[in-house]
Amino acid sequence: MTIDQAIDSLGLGAFQWRLLAICGLTWAADAMEVLLMGFALPGISAAFGLERGSPQATWLLTATFAGMLVGAWLWGYLADRLGRRTVFLITVSLGVVFGFAGAFAPGLEWLLLARFLTGFAIGGTLPVDYSMMAEFVPTPWRGRFLVYLESFWALGTVLVAALAWWVSTAFDPAVGWRYLLAFAALPGLIGLIARFGIPDSPRSLLARGQERQARGALERVARANGGTLPELPLARPVAGARVTLSRLFQGLLGRRTGLLALVWFGLSLGYYGIFSWLPSFLRAQGLDLGAVYRTTLLLALAQVPGYLLAAFLVEKVGRRATLTGFLAVSALSAYLFLGAQTPGAVLLTSAGLSFALLGAWGALYAYTPELFPTSLRSTGMGFVSGVARLASVISPSVGALLLTGELPIALTVFALALAVAAACAWAIGVETRGRALPEVTA
Questions:
Q1: Which regions form coiled coils (predicted)?
Q2: 14-54 pLDDT, tens per residue?
Q3: Which end of the chain has fewer CB atoms surrounding its CB within 10 Å, N or C?
């Protein structure tokens, strides 16, 4: 009995829904940490006397992404060597510690360090969460559940926008940012406690030769779902080569890795380039701080139908077509945003852009883990996620053009990046819908 046959025979039940809730909670917490500086920047600028668009402000927006770049590559590799659950727990623990530390930073340098270390920690949760989810969900539901997990990003965006709105009304901005950073770390702490009840991935355990532990994990799934694990020995996977980053660039897998890296880079450049600066851009248009946060909250809500549509389409028309379509619409929406002349038009076009970009993220997170073999799944997810963080490091500098009046240049760069990403997504040439993971990666 293969792991796929075992997981499919146990069906979809309470275990997968509980796993989705636990991973989703920490996913929402990560979203809050990633987007946090865009909301905290006005208060930090007031506290430390930073000018709008200054290099220090750009560094603050970049620090978390720089940490995620390093963390994604390291933690993804370690998850394939040491196991998903171990990295699962370590990264969230460190994210909570460093997130709280930022709230007590005595100076700008300490704050930059705390944000870099926070990014280093949460950079590992992103690839590991998706590897875990892909390996525990039955084949017919896998794509939909991976999009469901990504949709918790919208929840995190809504929470951080609402929290920033409340803090702006309750505290002076020069002090309120500290409360914002401290409160944003709390969901990660709750997620950490919940994660102790999740076993390691049976697929990962079996790939590392731990058959007894793999069967034990499957039995926990069976008990939670009210089923019975068949009394058949687990089929050992074909022994692969040692886990190394170089294996990602060999043969057919190398082509996939290269194209996926370009997709992740283009989507990340467009998304973070626009949305990391959007609160400051709206502030520069004359909106008061409360109105900025309310507008951002509405844009976060616009992400929800994008996720829902992506969850439907990845199982109806396939991952590849869904991802390519959302990326193409995102590129077009960037130019519609450029042409907006009234506050209502700005809100409408930015909501459309939010809808399309997050639909693309949902499809990409469903597609990517299915394209890597089990022994390299977290390593591969970590690598392409790290490439996305490289784009995230660059994007605030490009996005700063939004504040200096160079809106056409900035949005042209983002639209081109999204268009190239769409072409690369289609060029991958593989559809994973309804296929067992070993079939896709053989």
A1: none
A2: 999 999 998 888 888 888 888 888 788 888 888 888 876 67
A3: C
